[in-house]
Amino acid sequence: MERSLGEKEQTVKSETGDDLPGGPEAGQEVMADGVGVLRSCWAAVRAALFNRRALRDAVSVLERLDVREGNVVADIGSGGGFFAFEVARLAGPTGRVFAVDVDEGLLGCLARQARRRGITNVSFLHSAPEGPTLPRESFDLLFMRNVFHHLADPVAFLRRIAPALKGAGRLAVVEWKPRRRSLWRHSTDEALIRFSAEMARFSLIESYAFLKDQSFSVFGRR
C-alpha cells in the first residue's frame, strides 16, 4: 500500500538508496566491480536529493496536474522519480507513466525502486539530449519540471515531443525563475518558456503563481 506524502518525506532516503551510500543492497544490485557500485550509489544519492527538493509544494502541483485514472503521462526529466511515482499512483493500474531522462544511472535507480515497491505501471525511457522519441498521439500529459534550462534548443525540443500528445493533451512546465545577483544559471524566464511554446505551436491554458521560486505553465496544442 502506498504511503502518504507526509510519510514519504521521512523515508525518501531509504526508498531511493537503501540507506546509502554504503547500504548492503547497493553492491548487490550492480556489477561486482567497484566502479559499478560507486555509480549505483552516486545515482541513488542524486535521486534522494532530487526527491527531497520535489516534496516542497508537491501536493499543490499534483492537484493542478489533474491526472485522472487511466491517463498516460510522460515525466520528462524524471530525476529522482518522485513525481513519476506519484503520478503513477494517481493514474492507477489502467494508466501508464513514462519516466524519461538522459541519465541512465538515475533511470536504473528508479527501475530498482519500482521493483521493490511493486509499481508496475511505470516504464523507463532513456532520452537523447535533443528530446525523447515518444509514440504519436498517446499522452494525456507531458510534464517537465526543472528541465527547460538544460535545453540547447527549446523550440526544437518542444516540436519533437508535441506529436506525442493526444488532441486534448497538455504540456505542463515547472521551471526555476531567474534570481538577481545569483551565479546559479539553472533557470529560465517565464516569458522565454511561453515564447518557445508558441513557436512550437502550443498555446497557454493556465499559469500558476503559488510557487515561490518557480514558474508553472500549462499549454495545449494549437
UniProtKB/TrEMBL annotation:
Annotated organism of origin: Aminirod propionatiphilus
Entry superkingdom: Bacteria
Lineage: Bacteria, Thermotogati, Synergistota, Synergistia, Synergistales
Protein name: Methyltransferase domain-containing protein
Alphabetical UniProt keywords: Methyltransferase, Transferase
